[in-house]
Design brief:
Structural class: alpha/beta
Number of strands: 8
Strand content: 5-15%
Shape: elongated
Largest sheet: 6 strands, mixed
Radius of gyration: 29 Å
Number of domains: 2
Order of helices and strands: HEEEEHEEHHHHHHHHHHEEHHHHH
């Protein structure tokens, strides 16, 4: 069968091989006191190992290769970082290996020491075709507590990765969390289809301008619809005509340039999701909640985070309109629960976690995790696939973790870095 160095590192890390009569290629006895700590950075594969070779106890690094010639192929011969390697672990020995000072590095061979059952289980996980994930036939038999603990770790990885991306946006905004939150919230109000124009709108209309008109709902609406490009047409109804008049004055005052109207997409959207309706909702949110991120920080309890969005009441004009100058049947234009859940998940959770993590304020991290446990699990093909194999997601806490597990581990067959995969292999 075929395998890579990751598998051999895994075997060494957990000592999953026959250690009886273990000797170096030159005949010295070997006792593994500690295999060392696996190194995910550059340098030797394992650090701080303790190995007894003959009568001498050595402390240092361990390097793992499929073949000993990998030492030379990887350029270790001339790299000072590898001078403290005390043991070379290989599957095949095809050449002696030396340090820069010409001393030979002790080498052990794992060929014929790895159990056939372990090889078989690894081959089944990595190489056999599966419909959903590599361990789909075995994960149902794994202890639920182990899965829960692993999903928690994977969830934190997901949030930290997203936080790193957010950090770049905050840096671009010169450390301004409020402005960055406003931009992210705007993009998420676009709900994928109109995320880009919403983000461009926010970047073209800084919060500092909106703050100057925080007590005037009509001016807030005029600025938002005007910058979105919807007040350039030959409008007829009193409401949009009044907005256009306000915007023309404010546009000159602040030297604003609107984004192109053609960027907004209406096709294939339900009327309630039209960008005009979303812009109306966004305008009301801005009007009622100046300095939004500060309000988010002061809010406690998942239900209260929901109220930030469920209490939005748009201008009465929109009760019987989805677009300017186009009357429609009377219908409420409130944000639906599923839309609110998406905004909470993609904006509130992310910013609470990121702010708490960056400023070492655990209360915000805890609020983010509590909000994830409150929110329902997403419904998509990936989560449905996990349900089919017996892994249920009861909240967004689990579904977000499962999405990360699938996209960052299962899709790349990183079973050796996964606690579930590790457990299955150890049961071999």
């Amino acid at each position: 069968m075929t395998f890579n160095e990751d598998f051999l590192q895994y075997v060494w890390k957990f000592r999953l091989f026959n250690k009886t009569g273990l000797r170096t290629t030159t005949g010295e006895s070997v006792e593994i006191v500690s295999p060392g700590l696996q190194n995910s950075d550059s340098g030797p594969d394992f650090q701080h190992a303790r190995i007894r070779i003959g009568n001498t106890l050595w402390a240092g690094n361990v390097e793992v290769h499929l073949s000993s010639s990998g030492w030379k192929q990887h350029g270790h011969t001339t790299n000072d970082a590898y001078d403290n390697v005390i043991l070379h672990v290989v599957y095949h020995d095809d050449m002696p290996v030396y340090r820069k000072d010409s001393t030979r590095i002790p080498t052990i061979i794992l060929n014929e020491r790895i159990p056939d059952e372990l090889f078989g289980k690894y081959n089944w996980l990595i190489n056999e075709p599966k419909q959903i994930i590599p361990c789909e036939a075995s994960i149902g038999g794994i202890d639920g507590l182990l899965i829960r603990n692993w999903l928690t770790r994977v969830l934190i990885e997901r949030l930290q990765n997203r936080s790193n991306q957010l950090a770049q946006a905050i840096k671009a905004n010169k450390g301004d969390w409020e402005e960055t939150f406003y931009q992210y919230l705007a993009a998420n109000f676009g709900f994928k289809t109109n995320a880009v124009p919403f983000e461009l709108l926010a970047k073209s209309l800084p919060q500092i301008i909106l703050a100057k008109h925080k007590n005037n709902a009509q001016q807030i609406e005029a600025l938002i619809f005007g910058q979105a490009g919807f007040l350039t047409d030959d409008l007829q109804d009193d409401y949009p005509v009044a907005l256009r008049k306000e915007y023309q004055f404010l546009q000159k005052k602040y030297s604003l340039t609107s984004i192109p109207k053609h960027l907004w997409k209406f096709s294939k959207l339900r009327p309630l999701n039209f960008p005009t309706v979303r812009l109306a909702q966004f305008a009301v949110l801005i009007y009622h909640s100046n300095h939004l991120f500060s309000k988010v920080q002061d809010t406690r309890g998942a239900e209260n985070y929901e109220k930030l969005f469920t209490d939005i009441k748009v201008n009465a004009y929109w009760d019987d309109h989805y677009q300017f100058d186009k009357p429609s049947k009377l219908a409420a234009k409130n944000l639906g629960k599923s839309s609110v859940d998406i905004l909470l998940l993609n904006t509130i959770v992310l910013f609470l976690f990121s702010y708490g993590n960056q400023h070492q304020q655990e209360r915000y991290v805890n609020r983010a995790l509590q909000l994830l446990e409150f929110l329902p699990a997403e419904q998509n093909s990936i989560i449905a696939g996990f349900v089919d194999i017996g892994v249920k997601a009861d909240s967004a806490y689990e579904s977000q973790a499962l999405l990360e597990l699938k996209n960052s581990y299962c899709n790349y067959k990183k079973c050796l870095q996964c606690a579930v995969g590790n457990k299955i292999l150890k049961l071999a």
